[in-house]
Amino acid sequence: MQRNEWIEFLSGILQEDIGTLNDHALLSDLVYWDSMAQLVVMAKLHEAGIGTTPKQIRNLQTLNELILFIS
């Protein structure tokens, strides 16, 4: 997936237009960034052939870190 596809995907699961957020926005400040959203991201990464662990996802702090990690 391309960066813009990931942003669209994340906007859907987080129910926010993340394209308008600051890259340094904290994931913990996003209402829908919870364990379920993290599982959905991990499943999508697995689908895209990108291996990850729950610990790697939990360690991401900012929106930019998440986008860099998945793209």
Per DSSP E runs of 2 or more residues, the count of β-strands stands at 0
Give the domain tally: 1
Strand content: under 5%
Write down the CATH class. Mainly Alpha
CATH topology: Non-ribosomal Peptide Synthetase Peptidyl Carrier Protein, Chain A
Overall helicity: 40-55%
Counted by DSSP, the helix tally is 4
State the order of secondary-structure elements, H for helix, E for strand.
Answer: HHHH
Walkthrough of the structure:
The protein has 71 residues and is mainly α. The protein has one domain: Orthogonal Bundle (Non-ribosomal Peptide Synthetase Peptidyl Carrier Protein, Chain A), CATH 1.10.1200.10. The protein is 55% helix and 0% strand. The N and C termini lie close together (7 Å). The model has no long low-confidence stretch (mean pLDDT 93).
Keywords:
71 residues, mainly alpha, Non-ribosomal Peptide Synthetase Peptidyl Carrier Protein, Chain A, 4 helices, 0% strand
